Amino acid sequence: MHQPDFITSPPPPASGSTSSGAYPPQWSPFVNYPFGTVVWYSGTFWRCENGHTSGAEPAGAPTNNLHLWTPVGSTMGHPQQGYYAQQSQGYYGQPPSYTAQPPPQGYNQGYYTGPSQTNSSQLFAPIPTYPSVASPSRFDITNDSPSSNETITSPYDEKKAYERSSSATAFFGAKANESLRYIKLREESHRAKDKDEIKDELKGKRMWRVGGVGMWAYSLDAKEEEMKKKVWRDWGNKHGKDDWLKVSREKTEFYSKESRGVRPLFTWKLVEKSQNLPPDVLPIGNEQDGTPLYAARAWWEGGIHLGKAGHHLNSGASISYGGDEITLDTYEVFCGPINEPYLVKWMTFRHGEVAAVNGWQPVEGGREKDGAALLLAKGEYENGQHPGKCLINDDHACVGYGGGELWVRPFQILAYANADRR
Known about the structure:
Elements: E1 3-5, E2 32-33, E3 38-41, E4 44-48, E5 52-53, E6 69-74, H1 81-87, E7 141-142, E8 151-152, H2 158-191, H3 195-203, H4 222-238, H5 241-256, E9 267-271, E10 283-286, E11 292-300, E12 303-309, E13 317-321, E14 324-328, E15 331-335, E16 344-349, E17 366-367, E18 373-381, E19 384-391, E20 397-401, E21 404-408, E22 411-416
Antiparallel strand pairs: 1-16, 2-5, 3-4, 4-6, 7-8, 9-15, 10-11, 11-12, 11-15, 12-13, 13-14, 16-22, 17-18, 18-19, 18-22, 20-21
Helix pairs in contact: 3-4
């Protein structure tokens, strides 16, 4: 039986925080940090001022790179350190072990969850109570006594009330976005059952607004999955790498643009020869020495095959195929919110267990030439965690290493932590 790896009780947000409910992670070397990222290091919280890939400690640490990092607060130790030591491993490192049980009813890891297992169109969000706010135009009241030049605070602190109302606005804005995501998820899940929509996706005419749908998502519905296999086989017989590359460029440009609309939380983005990795590329594994590895995929022999990417790799990436490790200079990498590892979970399969998908949604992966779904997987080899691929019902993952293709057991498959949050 597979073993789901997830955290069942995220910590509460820090006082006054409007984040999604997790403390900033500890700073790590060899990680792509986008502008605005907040991390903890050496007793201080730091904000990234320039997107970059962190270097080795101590030279690459925030304390030695004040042109890249700004201290924004101090603390005696990292809050909830034990929590984040586990949570950060959602992307990078060996996840903690848990008993093989399904998530409890209503489990959502701190995110808004719309009604599940129902056709109801109602949407729900918890409503906090805030004091009503008087006019926000005056925060301080001056003592009118001619014998005093003091400034005193009103018994009803209007400034704090205004700040709370601003927090409430941000809170309800976030909940409104989640409501829109929930509605769009239901809408696009229905659209993705139409083969014409899948064909439009392959032509670049359909850009999905949520994850877990479309050609590259394995469908739990057998009929829908068979439809995707056939559409891919037919498309592959008439098209090739250049067609895939053209659509990949368009898709990467679309998802890289800023937008207030709903977008997938995780996407694959194209990296062409001599280009840098995107700032939101996610560390999926690591070499023996700790150097991060990222998930990669590319067109090869009529299929979209998965492998690994890294700053240190020849040409930038490699995939495993037909017993060989194939190096590539043009490929896609798996990207998403680097500070929110709890959005995904690793499903662990031990020796002798096959990759059966029941009741959970894998993240988007690839397809064999015959249309069979390839899932994003990783496995341990030579004291490293190597990203690769896995077929449904296989008892191993395939990874590229040392010029060859290796079968690794046990292995893990990356999945969405919440079916309504993708």
